[in-house]
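quick q for whoever's on today - can somebody do inverse folding on this one?? i tried earlier but teh output was garbage lol. tokens:
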């Protein structure tokens, strides 16, 4: 489903670059991203909004690699961050602090201080306790903190339990019942500027309806607040729009946007700035993970295809039971051998370490497989479990293939550790 991805002379290419050639040059496991696909995805959000006051804030957590942020920052994209680490990444990549919104249910004082110091657009606040700390820190710094309250609209989209965030049972957001009171309190705090209202209901959402339900709750509250004279300048509808992994029915973000804009217009809020925080849908389809087949292990119960990428490189299958489509890097000749079903598994010592189950493939040891739509929550969730260095990453565009992160080395993994004999005891 990605125009940038195609077989040429039976070899899989991304934006015109052969993936087996990149694997030969850089080794595996290897993440490869298409810059063109990311830009196209961004345009899919921005084009429907051209005549509106809006800000697309890319959710950095989906893929926080500097060059990925840079591609988006150059287009003037905003960013949704959840830590000071993500803030520093955005600044290093050339993103403007004034286009940054800071989300997250737990923000440390040092993170808040840094964000106030660089002048972010908005703190998305999730509780009274957080609001009071923010107010105190801003007052101490003799600055003002711009604030939006994250509502918990009690809407549960149809998605995995672990990535559903807008329900009553979730830790996220301010309950509707107390939100108006908290806004009144915020409006009275001298170091707080009330600027927005926001929600985020989950991830990999494929229906418009839950967004509209959450938006309706939000607008009802806005009616109350504005009747009292409080003016809210932006409405942030969060992220969460899904991507296609195989051939699932799924509409483009512009359908979501047009439904949201219609609702805002109908309710008299069409003049407000619309903020949206997509992560997965900007980068997910643009990336692939290339892995080498280490060995084939047909057994009585199952056929195992053992590859050199594991759950530490791509945790989504193990963690969410997520389906990621897998293809051969070099298209096999179907007439030569009959296909079989294979479990594509990694080298990590866990039975949950699989990338795909029961896949019809014709794997050959030493050749490569490609896991598609791995650009979001792939590298950004990678770990060093089993002391496995994290993969290298490459950005391809119509003219170049650029190494944007070198492969980690074992030395990288050991460099922060001390043996007991070293002289760094904290107390005697
Ligand atoms: N805004 C907020 C406040 C969020 O918490 C998130 C994601 C987003 C925006 C972006 O959502 P997206 O457009 O990417 O769906 N690791 C999981 C997904 C976790 C999403 C967490 N929050 C996965 O691999 O499916």
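ok took a stab at it. sequence:
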């Amino acid at each position: 489903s990605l125009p940038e991805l195609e077989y040429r002379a039976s070899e899989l290419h991304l934006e015109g670059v052969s993936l087996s050639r990149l694997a030969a040059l850089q080794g595996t496991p290897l993440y490869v991203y298409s810059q063109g696909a990311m830009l196209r995805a961004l345009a899919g959000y921005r084009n429907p909004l051209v005549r509106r006051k809006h800000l697309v804030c890319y959710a950095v957590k989906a893929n926080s690699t500097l060059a990925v942020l840079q591609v988006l920052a150059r287009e003037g994209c905003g960013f949704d961050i959840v830590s000071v680490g993500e803030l520093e990444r955005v600044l290093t990549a050339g993103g403007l602090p004034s286009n940054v919104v800071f989300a997250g249910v737990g923000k440390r004082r040092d993170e808040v201080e840094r964000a106030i110091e660089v002048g972010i657009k908005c703190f998305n606040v999730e509780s009274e306790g957080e609001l009071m700390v923010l107010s105190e820190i801003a007052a101490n710094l003799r600055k003002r903190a711009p604030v939006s309250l994250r509502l918990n609209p009690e809407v549960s989209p149809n998605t995995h339990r672990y990535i559903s965030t807008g329900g009553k049972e979730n830790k996220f957001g301010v309950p509707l019942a107390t939100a108006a009171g908290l806004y009144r309190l915020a409006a009275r705090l001298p170091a707080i500027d009330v600027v927005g209202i926001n929600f985020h209901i989950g991830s990999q959402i494929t229906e418009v309806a839950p967004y509209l339900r959450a938006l309706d709750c939000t607008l009802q509250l806005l009616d109350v607040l504005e009747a009292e004279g409080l003016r809210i300048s932006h409405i942030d509808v969060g992220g969460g729009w899904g991507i296609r992994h195989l051939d699932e029915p799924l509409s483009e973000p512009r359908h979501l946007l047009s439904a949201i804009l219609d609702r805002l217009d109908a309710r008299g809020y069409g003049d407000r700035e619309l903020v949206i925080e997509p992560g997965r849908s900007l980068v997910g389809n643009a990336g692939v993970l290339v892995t080498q087949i280490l060995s084939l292990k047909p057994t009585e119960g199952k056929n195992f295809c053992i590859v050199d990428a594991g759950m530490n490189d791509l945790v989504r299958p193990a963690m969410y039971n997520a389906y990621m489509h897998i293809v051969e890097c070099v298209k096999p000749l179907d007439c030569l051998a009959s296909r079989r079903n294979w479990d594509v598994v990694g080298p990590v010592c866990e039975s949950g370490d699989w990338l795909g189950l029961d896949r019809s493939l014709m794997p050959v040891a030493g050749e490569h497989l490609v896991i598609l739509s791995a650009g979001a929550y792939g590298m950004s969730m990678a770990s060093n479990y089993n002391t496995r260095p994290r993969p290298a990453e490459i950005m391809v565009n119509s003219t170049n293939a650029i190494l944007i992160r070198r492969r980690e080395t074992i030395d990288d993994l050991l460099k922060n550790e001390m043996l007991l004999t070293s002289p760094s005891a904290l107390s005697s």
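fwiw The two ends are 62 Å apart (CA to CA). also The CA atoms of residues 69 and 90 lie 7 Å apart. so keep that in mind when u check it
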